[in-house]
Design a protein that fits this description.
Four copies of one chain form a homotetramer. Chain A has 347 residues and is of the alpha/beta class. Helix content of chain A is 42%, strand content 15%. Chain A has 14 helices and eleven strands. The first copy, chain A, has helices spanning 17-26, 38-51, 63-72, 88-91, 96-101, 117-121, 152-165, 176-183, 187-191, 223-229, 238-248, 252-272, 294-303, 326-346; strands at residues 57-60, 79-84, 105-108, 134-141, 168-172, 196-200, 210-214, 278-279, 287-291, 307-310, 315-319. In chain A, strand 8 (278-279) and strand 9 form a beta hairpin. In chain A, helix 1 (17-26) crosses helix 11, helix 2 (38-51) packs across helix 11 (238-248) and helix 13 crosses helix 14. The longest helix of chain A is centred in the C-terminal third of the chain and has 21 residues, at 252-272. Chains in contact: A-B, A-C, A-D, B-C, B-D, C-D. The interface between A and B is large, with 59 and 59 residues.
Amino acid sequence: MDQRKSFGSDNHAGAHEAVVRALAQANTADVPGYGDDPWTGRAAAALSTAFGARGGAYFVFTGTAANILGLSLLLRPYEGVICAETAHINVDECGAPERILGSKLLTVATPDGKLTPELIGTRLGDRGDEHRAQPRVVAISQVTELGTCYSLEELKSLGEFCRAEGLRLYLDGARLANAADHLGCSLADLASWADVLSFGGTKNGAVGAEAVVVMAEDLAADVPFLRKQQAQLASKMRFLAAQFEALLDGGLWLRNAGQANAMAVRLAEGVAGIPGVHLWQPVESNAVFASLDPAHIERLQRDWHFYIWDAPAHVVRWMTAFNTTEADVDAFLADIRRTAGGRAAGK
Amino acid sequence: MDQRKSFGSDNHAGAHEAVVRALAQANTADVPGYGDDPWTGRAAAALSTAFGARGGAYFVFTGTAANILGLSLLLRPYEGVICAETAHINVDECGAPERILGSKLLTVATPDGKLTPELIGTRLGDRGDEHRAQPRVVAISQVTELGTCYSLEELKSLGEFCRAEGLRLYLDGARLANAADHLGCSLADLASWADVLSFGGTKNGAVGAEAVVVMAEDLAADVPFLRKQQAQLASKMRFLAAQFEALLDGGLWLRNAGQANAMAVRLAEGVAGIPGVHLWQPVESNAVFASLDPAHIERLQRDWHFYIWDAPAHVVRWMTAFNTTEADVDAFLADIRRTAGGRAAGK
Amino acid sequence: MDQRKSFGSDNHAGAHEAVVRALAQANTADVPGYGDDPWTGRAAAALSTAFGARGGAYFVFTGTAANILGLSLLLRPYEGVICAETAHINVDECGAPERILGSKLLTVATPDGKLTPELIGTRLGDRGDEHRAQPRVVAISQVTELGTCYSLEELKSLGEFCRAEGLRLYLDGARLANAADHLGCSLADLASWADVLSFGGTKNGAVGAEAVVVMAEDLAADVPFLRKQQAQLASKMRFLAAQFEALLDGGLWLRNAGQANAMAVRLAEGVAGIPGVHLWQPVESNAVFASLDPAHIERLQRDWHFYIWDAPAHVVRWMTAFNTTEADVDAFLADIRRTAGGRAAGK
Amino acid sequence: MDQRKSFGSDNHAGAHEAVVRALAQANTADVPGYGDDPWTGRAAAALSTAFGARGGAYFVFTGTAANILGLSLLLRPYEGVICAETAHINVDECGAPERILGSKLLTVATPDGKLTPELIGTRLGDRGDEHRAQPRVVAISQVTELGTCYSLEELKSLGEFCRAEGLRLYLDGARLANAADHLGCSLADLASWADVLSFGGTKNGAVGAEAVVVMAEDLAADVPFLRKQQAQLASKMRFLAAQFEALLDGGLWLRNAGQANAMAVRLAEGVAGIPGVHLWQPVESNAVFASLDPAHIERLQRDWHFYIWDAPAHVVRWMTAFNTTEADVDAFLADIRRTAGGRAAGK
């Protein structure tokens, strides 16, 4: 096993040691299963408070699961979800929204992974037409899959638009912590216009835990049944809750996100001066999208783990994580510089 | 929090310390996500070997998830699953088979949670009739939900019947380890007639991990996609795999099951002599089903955690776990004896 | 093609000539599709009036489709349907409720195909338990699949029970006309406790048309979308509506049902005196269930078309239809008498 | 009711009188239900012969139903359907593919509603990636929703591409008759590269009947069960079959399509010389897509029934049908001319 830092994904990192320690500490006496335990009570309450969520917070195992559960609270069978073409629910969940929810995704092309009222408006023409899936939910990702963030003003604008149009707002927050750090705002600020959102633990340093946060109280009654039906009810729930407790304790979640974000900025700033390397998206979280010579990509991939995002456009994605260090970034930068420089010189 | 041992469920126990230690040890360098890591490779290979599974072993988070994934490998949309009325898939999964699989369960009443060729035969009359869901899979639980085990002879008889009838055999092995201990046989023995089965880690001492074991190679190709679609693909898969590695290491899984089973036998033998307490099912795993005076049930539940199984019949379920001690059982027995004796005397 | 009357099913008959004539008459000028035409407007209004339905009446093609659409108005994903084991939705729809609705059927054994508050009560124990599909709809068939009818008192008792328990009542009325004739009551009487019901045209003399009748106005908004999504929106809707107009015109539907019912009574009375033939269910519609010597069954099936209902019990089902004549019944009776008598004599 | 010809849709027409006559003729003696009758046998056999279909032909009620049934023969749960963005299955079925099939549609933008190997190729990049729905079926419409036809060469090219890539080819033939007329080829020619296709009766002059034609024998076994489960099994099937018999008899289907097509050509040629009216798509069937001044559209819609296809682009759709006459077209043309001329003069 290669011991170099992976820039492939923030889930290539292990867990933060405080999370692992919390698991061990939660391994004490017998407690009832399925969430009727102190850890779950405390962690769910802490999340509800942090988000201002009147409908509670519920733990599940994966980001896809959080999205499916969250969306299932908001949709009738003939209603669809407006989302960006690049949305995780559209691209990276193997058709789970269609199969498990049974819902149509009404996709919109975007330059930066972000929806706008104008873009959403292009999918609203069919309302009332029985032949068409009815747009009902707007699903955004914060951070988006392209590493960009909605500003609080943009969120407000989307939220007001959705309310005016009778649309629900769902927020895929697999990297919500990174957005909070980047925008310098609270979780409640990020959630204030959402009906339901997810809050990702796994990419933030958990072993594997996500939360579904329900802002409106009247949506909460369905959650326990839908979570169980969707095979996401943990019997030893304390071990999911304890992970969130550890992340929430003393703001570890924000420090973890802040470290990852800072390292992405360091990486982006480092490549800024390298000839032939171009940033494709603004760096607003822990992702750096850059284009470079395909031969350089190939060379770098021999030693470093990262993914090609768009092969024809020669765009790669470099992700940092809570455990990325300055030394990791600098070593990678040195190699990029060497590769790009050498090849450039050789041309 | 009450520090007494729970007899409510084997998932009220925490995890075995070796499992928690394994999680910490797996928390090392970066590795690729989604199972492309050494822990997953090793644990899956070890399970495949132990079961003689040519289609591989795959990790998921919950028992319901394992059942859904396993069954989804075996069914076309119009095919149904013959199972006992008491089966977990019928009773305890909030309709997940119907909603997520979309499949009809063809239930059969049983005295002891066990299917027989004769009982299965009662659901085979509609084959070829387009108006009827077509029986295709026989799903059994080993250990059953009533704590009983199929003997190897019974498994063989079911397996031969299924093959002769063109039926697939699925085995819900949430407590398979307990069956292996009770029957004194190998995992491969238990699996030999099954097409797909689950192997439960959670009730055996894991933090939360189940395996889907695919016996036939030709069923394996669908698994990765269906697992992802069913929201059960762990990004940090090593932390699921490491739990199984710990359980497999040195036969810990079997010792855990053995301890739980032995404590159930101790409990059953202990109550055998108590007037007014009657065993309802033979004790063949880590469950003791007993009937007793409802007033005694109420009194015992003030101090001990366990569930009423069948209120009209005054039947309770007492579960032991890997961490149940002789002292736990003896303390509980003393209280049962005191309660039953006292009340009986007072009548 | 055998020209004898079939006693196999009321759908073996063709259509009433008035229905076919109505189709021809509706084949005039161009009209908008999907129900925006005069026939649909008139027929739906007439049905709404006849039933006292504030949510409207909607046409679909088959009885299964009507049941699925009707139930889909009443269920959230984790909610189940309490029904008799013999219910059409459980036995004769190839798993459509599970696959298309995704809903669990909570079945109850009955002696006569009829649910009672007591029987329904046996499936209510799991409310509030997140592990269990939540009972939400009680689905009854009127006429039942065993040819029996709920009296108006029984309907009232069920309706009051459902309202007290927060359950919805769905009524499968594939043979509702036969119930109206048998009970001598109005369609509104039959529907008064139901939230949604179906009204069958096909078995009543239509070419192929069923109506979903929505009693409560607040359930109506979903219907157009769900009907379209379930592939039941007729583009040339006038041809469904015209069939119902013909049946409603001058009470043809009731005369058709009355003729079928009377012929069943004639048949039942005729066999009453035949040795070895025993009525299995009371004759309250157009079905006669009788048990007789299996050799006699076999002999009769050489010349007459009817189905064996329960082979081990030697029970057959004889259905009459709107076009069954006294001569048809008498010819069949003569053969039954001859067969039963001859064989009995020969024994 | 306005007695003018509708140019709104080919389903605004009633049925061809021969079809209605056939219904009346089929209304004779009792026959078994669900297709076990002479009409169904003959019509299905005739279709199988006409298409060269070894898997048989099966009747359903609507075009959406035909598409869902046809596609359901070809897909596993995690497999998706590549189709044009404009495809009926994507736009006009209220999410039925996602809800009833549970399958993801992998859409492609096209200029003319037609897929090409190149366009299909853009959706093949994710094969083997468990995070992505796997492309498995290519679904084309012949005639497309934009009134265009694939040439036989284009079909061959698509067919060869699909076979080389391991993709199945589904053909939505709601207006297949119009394609046969336009291309001057046989139904077998049109079907030769398809695995499954639909053949529309309704728009061709039926009361309401569609056929699913299964080219490969090994796909046929599932059809009866899936059709029933999808609520499309007609009990009085003879009345569906008789419609197709009438259309097939003496080539009525082709004459009907030919009349509709000829009238569309007449309309297109008529508007060709009108200033301000521009054809948007080539006229290759019974649809004319044209752009014109929005004020003229509004004026024409006061007297004529037709739909705006693309409001921002001022594109309207004019459909002809089997019953459109030269006089209908000429009257409409006169009004278009008057409207466009008057306005143009006034500018």
